[in-house]
Amino acid sequence: MKKLLISCLLIAVNTFVFAQKVSPKFNQKEVERIISTLASDKMQGRASFTPYIDKAANFISTEFKKIGLKTFNNSGSYLQSFKMVQPKTIKTIATWNQQPLNENHIIAFTSRPELKINETSGYEKVFIKASDNFFTVARQLIPGKKNCLVMVDSEHAKKFDRLNYLKEYLFKSENSVVFVLTNEEPKTFSIEISHEIKELKLANVVGVLPGKKLKNEYVIFSGHYDHLGIEKPINGDSIYNGANDDASGITAIISLAKYYKELNNNERSIIFVAFTAEEIGGFGSQYFSNQLDPQKVAAMFNIEMIGTESKWGTNSAYITGYEKTNMGEILQKNLKGTNFTFYPDPYTEQQLFYRSDNATLARKGVPAHTISTSKMDNEPNYHKSSDEVKTLDLTNMNNIIKSIAISAGTIISGKDTPTRVDASQLK
């Protein structure tokens, strides 16, 4: 009887130890359920500012709640809401050193219906010189952290009008930034602009898995949940479902949240965020990034378009901005012994590092990269109504999500910390 009890005890101990070593599984049926919901015709392409993107946000929120994630900053809601404005210029009257100023030489970024300023208004004067990178400087000023009068050297005349593309949607702000194409600093000036202002609402979806010993250090997993909505019909289909772009990324985020919650050993806190409005300017990631201290973010995994095979086939993906930090090296080290490979971005001429939701935090020095498999030189369904679940390789996609989870392990545990991006070298 005594020997029997000892044997049973040993079996129980071995079973417990084995159970402790077994990681949670990634269920392909769950992957299919999530992506099929997000990319269904019922979501109508998840365009920003439509009821359908709200429907998608509610679905993601429900998934986060089922998993048991906390809300960001204990807000009580997974929705991180913010406002945008859409200004339409109605009338412009201006003088510069008491001479009429061409209205085409003025572009104002403002939330005010009526903007009237002159030399006594207290606007800070900023100069964009001929030798400056025009859009780099302009992007730094446009968030409207203070009132600015920006004088743009005439060498940038051919680029000046392109500022209007950045003006279609603006964050709601009390401050205004006025660009004037001129080489002459004014002693006196008067600018009066009337706008029709339309206020719009957006929301990111954010869930948090608090860390243990390093709970004030963060690892971010992100993707964008918006797409193009209803567009010009192709073969009779006008719904641009965005299955690969980027319901695949959001499916990965939800799957990873469930995995790390079940694993329950993350030393660093993990933030899972589904960004809105990526397709119209990356506004969701811009807003989110401004709510964080970038020095506390150890790494950001932005996941976009992982539903198709990469140019190297299955069991592979690429990392944008691979050379800017050693994060890719860490991920590949953690995958030693597997058949999965992370490659550097093969499409550097397309500037993908700057075109996705990783860019805002990367510009603040965070090792923030996008993981993708999309063949950007030959992805047949990109931004088309044919981007549907049936075109994706869900088995490979499930393996990619699993590989991301494994490769991020030492960063989440705090054992590894990627080197920072040299923000001074970014565009």
From TrEMBL:
Statement: the UniProt record of this protein carries the keyword Protease: yes
Indicate the secretion signal residues. 1-19
Domain (Peptidase M28) spans: 204-403
Q: Which GO terms describe its biological process?
A: proteolysis
Keywords from UniProt, A to Z, are:
Aminopeptidase, Hydrolase, Protease, Signal
Molecular function terms in GO for this entry? aminopeptidase activity; metalloexopeptidase activity
Write down the Pfam families for this protein, in alphabetical order. Answer: Peptidase_M28 (PF04389)
Q: Which Gene3D superfamilies match?
A: Zn peptidases (3.40.630.10)
The name on file for this protein is: Aminopeptidase
Question: What organism is listed for this UniProt entry?
Answer: Solitalea longa
